[in-house]
Specification:
- The complex is a heterodimer.
- Chain A is built from ten helices and one strand.
- Chain A is mostly helical.
- Chain A has two domains: 158 residues, no CATH class; 53 residues, no CATH class.
- The N and C termini of chain A lie far apart (45 Å).
- By secondary structure, chain B is mainly β.
- Chain B has two domains: 196 residues, Lipoprotein localisation LolA/LolB/LppX (outer membrane lipoprotein receptor (LolB), chain A, Clam); 115 residues, 2-Layer Sandwich (Phosphorylase Kinase, domain 1), CATH 3.30.200.100.
- Classes of the chains: A mainly alpha, B mainly beta.
- Chains A and B meet through helix 2, helix 3, helix 4, helix 9 and helix 10 of A and strand 2, strand 3, strand 4, strand 7 and strand 8 of B.
- Strand 1 of chain A pairs antiparallel with strand 13 of chain B.
Chain lengths: 221, 347
């Protein structure tokens, strides 16, 4: 992502981008997957750093960021101190952002792990910052270009997803259940289901395959 | 009248309103909050159902960000709605009153399904009554600026670990949700959408509601109607014990996959969160390797922003699924009993 686009995204997230440029940025977002990924990442980093503790990142996002920096998921986490972190946020580029990514990754690692098949243990015990996690931030500060360069090379996966349990149902079948369920789930939750179905299904944990094979009646070719 | 919610593209008439507001309040935005959060949620529901809107939003779940467009039009009591993925395979959903059409170009398929649910794609919340209040706590957080607009921030906090919560940023003028988050009981965000652009025009032309997918050569398939009742051996199954606040709300049957007979489908809700329980004589979809044929599935799986838990009860495949924590689907699936077991959920 070029410096100019970074600034545009930053301005947009702060509500300060002129409408003409917003249009262009949106057009660009819809055709540039890498930019979209970065956009989501930066938006969420900003949320986390400015949110005063109200907002943390989603699990998958944190794991991706962590993989980007570290190459493997970190085992433990601690809580971000929003006041300290907020000043890192702007001006958005380079060292500060990468340090922010590391900090956010640590934050959101909290309670991420769930043992496959042990749903009752869905909430892991919060741990302390590990020594390695602490050293991530300064190490990453000198590695901004590496972060960018590695982004494409690393194959992101959500680690330790319960879906990888050996006897878990095939994702297509679960999607069928979810689709049938969506008729009865309430609005915002239903939106999530429909959105999942709209999205490409590269990630088997998301199970976005449409329930095509189950449909009993053919209408017309 | 058009409400343009683009940054720095506010219509001129809005500026006097803002000035009047500033004179009357002369306080920073951050010191204000929605006065009655429950009322604001109701306003949001009304706005989502009754307004015309055309917006582009980002949907983030599990670390993936997708760009989507939503167009919603109400004309003479008729609702027409289109949800379009602007990335990837270009899937589109169109709802025309009671019929949902899913255009899946990557599958060369158009799926048509009757839907009883009349809620908008973007989704509203049920009304907050005293019962819902037993399990969720509404909270008005300080106002913030979103898309250059003042937004009331409302949190719907679950009181225990059996349900997820929401955080909503509602436009102070229109009550449209500019941003929403699904959170667990610790406040960790599981899924969120945020609008990059949102217009609310008086008129939306048909062309904006017409799918762009070329359907030439695609397979059209129509989902059959839902069944009223399942076979008696399946309908005897019930959940014997439920997490606090969950009650049976719907009982029916549903063909899952290519099963020869419909599964029993039980729906349990606390008023906000919903869990479906499916009971089948046999697995509905032909299993994929490495599972042996007809092997029952068991265990926990992540599905979208929710969970599914499968187990086997008295030789039947039981799966609980919903946008709830893993704990909840496992609790419910493990409490399913067949036959003559006592059934406190029905008392």
């Amino acid at each position: 992502m070029s410096e100019q686009i970074r600034e545009q995204v930053s301005a947009f997230l702060d509500g300060e981008l002129p409408s003409t440029e917003t249009e262009l940025l949106l057009k660009r977002l819809t055709r540039d997957g890498e930019l979209r990924e970065s956009f989501g990442r930066y938006a969420l980093i900003g949320e986390a750093l400015r949110g005063g503790g109200q907002t943390l990142l989603t699990k998958g996002f944190a794991s991706r960021v962590n993989l980007t920096i570290d190459g493997e998921p970190a085992p433990a986490a601690a809580t971000l101190v929003p006041g300290k972190a907020a000043r890192w946020w702007r001006p958005f580029a380079g060292v500060a952002v990468v340090a922010g990514v590391a900090a956010v990754a640590i934050v959101a690692m909290q309670q991420r792990y769930e043992a496959p098949g042990v749903a009752g243990a869905g909430v892991g015990a919060p741990g302390a910052i590990t020594a390695r996690a602490i050293t991530n931030a300064p190490a990453a500060m000198s590695a901004a270009p590496v972060l960018a360069a590695n982004r494409e090379a690393i194959s992101y996966t959500v680690p330790a997803a319960p879906a990888s349990a050996p006897n878990a149902a095939p994702s297509g079948r679960l999607t069928n259940y979810m689709f049938a369920h969506s008729k009865y789930s309430y609005g915002l939750a239903q939106r999530g289901v429909l959105a999942d179905l709209l999205i490409n299904d590269e990630d088997p944990a998301v199970a976005a395959r449409p329930p095509v094979q189950q449909v009993p009646v053919l209408v017309a070719p | 009248m058009t409400h343009a919610l683009r940054p720095h593209a506010r219509a001129g008439w809005l500026i006097p309103c803002a000035m009047v507001g500033a004179v009357l309040t002369s306080s920073p935005v951050s010191s204000w909050a929605a006065d009655d959060p429950g009322q604001w949620l109701e306003k949001m529901n009304q706005a989502l159902a009754n307004r015309n809107y055309d917006g582009t939003f980002l949907h983030e779940s599990g670390g993936r960000v997708e760009t989507m467009r939503i167009v919603h039009r109400v004309r003479a009591g008729k609702v027409l709605e289109r949800l379009q993925s602007l990335d990837g395979p270009g899937r589109e959903f169109v709802r025309d009153n009671d019929e949902l059409t899913c255009y899946l170009p990557d599958q060369h398929t158009v799926l048509v399904e009757p839907r009883q649910d009349r809620g908008p794609f973007l989704g509203a919340l049920p009304q907050f009554g005293a019962k819902t209040g037993e399990f969720y706590r509404l909270e008005a957080l300080p106002d913030v600026r979103v898309l250059g607009r003042t937004a009331h921030v409302i949190a719907v906090n679950p009181k225990d670990q059996y349900r997820f919560g929401y955080r909503l940023w509602l436009d102070a003028q229109t009550a449209m949700p500019l941003r929403t988050q699904l959170c667990d009981s610790h406040g960790e965000v599981l899924e969120q959408i945020f609008f990059a652009k949102l217009d609310m025009p008086d008129n939306i032309p048909d062309s904006d509601l017409t799918p762009t997918v070329k359907t030439d050569g695609m397979r059209w398939v129509r989902q059959g109607p839902a069944h009223e009742v399942a076979a008696s051996n399946l309908s005897a199954f019930r959940v014997s014990e439920l997490p606090p606040g969950f009650k049976l709300t719907v009982e029916g049957a549903q063909t899952i996959g290519d099963a020869s007979e419909p599964a029993s489908h039980l729906v349990y809700s606390d008023g906000l969160a919903t869990v479906s329980v499916f009971i089948e004589a046999q697995p509905g979809v032909k299993p994929v390797p490495p599972l042996p044929p007809d092997a029952p599935v068991q265990g926990l799986a992540r599905v979208g922003s929710g969970y599914a838990f499968s187990t086997v009860v008295q030789g039947h495949q039981v799966t609980a699924v919903g946008e709830v924590p893993a704990l909840t689907v496992e609790f419910i699936a493990h409490s399913v009993k067949g036959g003559a077991d006592p059934d406190p959920a029905h008392r």
